[in-house]
Amino acid sequence: MKHIKRFSEDIKVPIELGDTILGGRFKNKKVVVKKIGKNKKGDITVNDKPLLKYRIIKESISQEDINNQLAYLIDDGFQVVKDNWSSSYKIEIFKQKERGSNIATNNMTEIKWSDIESDLLPFIELNRDIIKEIILIFTTFSDSTYQTKQYDRKIFSVDEILEDKDFDKILRLTILLK
What we know:
Layout lengths: L19 E4 L5 E4 L3 E3 L5 E3 L2 E2 L4 E2 L6 H7 L1 H5 L3 E7 L2 E7 L18 H14 L4 E12 L6 E8 L1 H5 L7 E8 L1
């Protein structure tokens, strides 16, 4: 007992001075990190409050994470593509009529919301902090010869999508990330 070895802990927290994290009662208010330290008990503190009083904002999501979280949609034949778009990223979900051909709206199969809802809503809920908006493209009109189709593009917030809504005849779903 005389020679008890001292153990040294190394805890790495992925935040630095100047980063923005979420704090407050419901951990939804943005707080800028001004000071990182330890208190008397040895707990890590941010701005003199324990680290557990904060939530780290997810910065981005990788293509591998997307594929893992939306694996059921991919298995059902949906295309899930993450692409760099202007200053942010977008994730597009659609089903092609003919594989390998161009990714144009006229080459997409119509989707019912009820077919993708159970796989998509958990993904949206899990990543709601990094989702800016969700764009749905609908088929609104088709003439009798099916030569001319009209498309309607509507923008929704995460909360609007998570409400119990039913969308019909979706051609493409685009999720814009912050």
